[in-house]
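Dear U.,

For the methods section draft, I wanted the exact inputs and outputs in one place so we can describe them consistently. I've listed the two proteins in the order they'll appear in the manuscript figures. Please don't edit the C-alpha cell lines directly; just add comments below if something needs changing.

First protein:
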Amino acid sequence: MPGLVCGKKKLAESNMEFSNLVQLDMATRSKSNLLLTSQDIDDFHSLILPGLPDDVAKYCLALAPRTDFPVMGGVSKRWRSFMQSKEFITVRKLAGMLEEWLYVLTIDDEGKGIHWEVLDYLGQKHGVLPSMPGPVKTGFGVAVLNGKLLVIAGYSMIDGTGFPSGDVFQYDSCLSRWSKLANMNVARYDFACAEVNGMVYAVGGCGMDGKSLSSVEVYNPDDDKWTLIESLRRPRWGCFACGFEGKLYVMGGRSSFTIGNSKFVDVYNPDRHSWCEMKNGCVMVTAHAVLGKKLFCMEWKNQRKLAIFNPDDNTWKMVPVPVTGSSKIGFRFGTLDEKLLLFSLENGPGYHTLLYDPNAAPGSEWKTSQIKPSGLCLCSVTIKA
C-alpha cells in the first residue's frame, strides 16, 4: 500500500521536524534573551517561532502528528491559542496532514463503566478521554465542530431527581481537555442535532415534565451563543439530524407517545430561515451515519439491511447486511476512511466489526475490520485534526 507507507513516512519525518523545532525554539530563546531589551523580549515572545514569519511558523506546527498535540499545547500561549483555532485545522488540511480518529463512547459488559476511547483507522487505541465534567447524562446529543467534540444537553439524575439539562461541554481533541460552553436556551433531551455550515443545530426533543418540544436553536462558535430560530411545525422527539449541501435534515422520532410523524422529513434552509417537509423518511431508526454525500440508516423493524438515502433525488436504496442470527441484535455505526463501520450490540467471542465500502467493486463492498472498541458502542464520532 504505497499511500499508507508514504503517509507513515511523512508522519515520522514530521515528528522529527517538530522535535527539532522545539529544541531550536528553546535554544534561540535562551541565547537571544541575553541581548534583547524588555520591549524586544515582549515582541520576541509574541512570535510563534522566533526567527520565522508567523505564516511559516504555523505551517511548521501543522506538520506535527496528532500524538504530539497535547505536549505542543504546553509550550506557550501562542502555540496553544493557534491550536485551539479554526485556522490550525485549515492549515493542517492544506498541508495534507489531517488525521482521522474515531471517538467511541463505550460501556463495559456489566453496563457500569462508560468512557470515550480513541481509535485510528488501523484499530490502534490512542487512549481514553478525561471524564466529562458535570453529572452523568442520558439522551444527550453529540456533534463535531472545528475539530472539537460537543456533548449537548441531556437528562441528568441528581439525588434521585431527574431533569433535562441545558449544559454543553466541549472536548478539544488537540489539547485533550474539556471546557464549558454557553448553556442552551431550552433544556432538552432525546433531540436531534447536527453541524451545518459551521453551526450546530438542536431540534425538538423532550423538555420539562417530558413535554415534547418543537423549538429549535443554533450554536455559533464565534460568539459562543445559542439562538432560538423558527420552530418545527409540530413537536418531535427521538429524532436525528444530518446536514447535506448546506441544509439541515431531521428524520425519525415521534410527536407524542401515541401519534407519530416519523415518515416526515423536516428540512431547514439556513439561507431562507425556513422549514419545508418531505414524506419520504426512515422510520424508528436505531443507527445512522453520514458518509460522503449519503445517509446510512438502520431501522428497528429491519436490522439486516442498510437503508441508504441520496439527498440529490430523495431516494432510498436497500443493501443486505451479510450476517445471520437473530434480527434483534442491532448495530451502532461509525465512519472512518470513507467507510462505514457496524459495531454489534452483542459482544460475543467471535464478534467482528463489519465494514462497508460504498466505493468498492460490486460484490466486494463488505469486509471485516480490526477496529473494535473495548466495550459496547453507544455512539461514535469521527474527528479530523
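Second protein (the one for the lower panel):
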Amino acid sequence: MSDVEEAVTRAHQDEWARVVASLTRRFGDLDIAEEAAAEAFATAVERWPADGVPPNPGAWLTTTAVRKAIDRIRRENKRDDKHKEAQMVYDNTPPEPLGVIDDDRLRLIFTCCHPALAMEARVALTLRMLGGLTVPEIARAFLVRETALEQRITRAKAKIKAARIPYRVPAAEDLPARVSGVLAVLYLVFNEGYLATGPDTDPVRHGLTAEAIRLTRLIRALLPEDGEVAGLLALMLLTEARRTARVSASGELVTLDEQDRGAWDKALIAEGHRLVRERLAAAAAGMAPGRYQILAAINAVHTSARDIRDTDWSQIVALYDQLVQLDSSPIVALNRAIAVAELDGPEVALAAVDRLADELAGYHAYHATRADLLRRLGHSQRSRAAYDKAIELAGNTAQTANLTRRRDQLR
C-alpha cells in the first residue's frame, strides 16, 4: 500500500464520522450527508495521488463534501425549496442551552438511535453513519444477509426523514430511556474495531475502538450515575488494554492464553479496574449490575491474572451464571462453556457447546471452540474438520492464520 493509500485509509477511519455528522447538522438529511461524504472520499482517492495529501485531511474532506452536497441539492427537481430548507437548518438553528455537550457525532448517535426506530435499525444505521462500516461488514456483525441489512438502513433513514426526528442530544429527562440503545451501538462499533469482521481490512482498527471509547466517555459525562455506562466504559478499556498483544508481527491473531501480558496497557487496566470496583460497591449497596457491568467484571478477572494459569475460572463461571440471567443468547452460552472447560474439563464444555449447534452453525467461533475442545480430548480428525469449518467462516486474515496454525499442529 502506498503512502497516499494509507493516508486515505487513515482519513476514512479518523474523519468519516466527523464529515457525516457535520453535513447532517448543516443539511439535515442523512442521505445527502452519507452520499456527499462518500463522494468526497472518492475524490480524495482520485486527486491526492496527484495533488498530494492535504495538511488537514479532515477539513479538505468536509469542504469537498459540502460542495458535493450543494451540487446534489441544486440538481434536485425541487432544488429551490430543498436548498432553502438546507440553509435554514444550517443558518437558523437556535443555539442549544449552555451545558449541553456540543459534539456533532454525539448528536448524530442520538438521532440514529432514536426510539422510533427498531433496535436492529438503530445499530445498523449508526455503524454505517458513525463508524463508516460497509454494508458487508455490518451484515457480518449481525449475522444477516447483506440485502436485508441494506433495506434495514434505507428504511431507517426514510423513517428519520418522514418523522422529522431531531438532530440533537436529548433533554436530560429523556436521556436514561435513550441511552441503552446508544450503548448497544457503541459496543458493536468497538467490537468491529477491536477485531474486524471483514476480510479486506486491518484486523484491528484502532480508529473505531478509540471513537467508541471517546463517545462512551462523553455519555458518561452526561450520565455519571448510570451504572451501565460506567460498565461499558470499563469493558472497553479492559479490552482495549490488550489490543497491541492481540495480533502478532506476522499478522496472526494471538488468543488470550498466548498473549504477552507484559504488553498490556497498564494505565487502561488500572482505569478499568477502578470503574469495576465502583460498580461492585454499588452492587453491594443493592444496585443490581447490568450486562455491561458483568462483562467488565469478567474482563477484570482476566486482566488481574499475571499468567493464564492464575486465572480465577470459578469466579468467571459464576459471573457468566449471573450474565445468563440477563442475556440468554447462544453467544453468551458459548463463552460460558469456554470458561467451564477450564474449570470442569473439555468434555463437560463440549456437551454444552454441542447443544448450540443449531443456533451458531454459521458462527466461526462456535466451530473454533469445538475444534479446540476436541483437540484437548484427543479427537484429532473431528478437531481438524471443525477447524476447517471455522477457517471457512473466519472474518479476517488474522483469525484465519491462527486457526490454520492450530489445525496444522494436529497430528
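Candidate sentences for the figure legend, describing the second protein: The two ends are 38 Å apart (CA to CA). Residues 90-100 have pLDDT under 50 and may be disordered.

Thanks,
Y.
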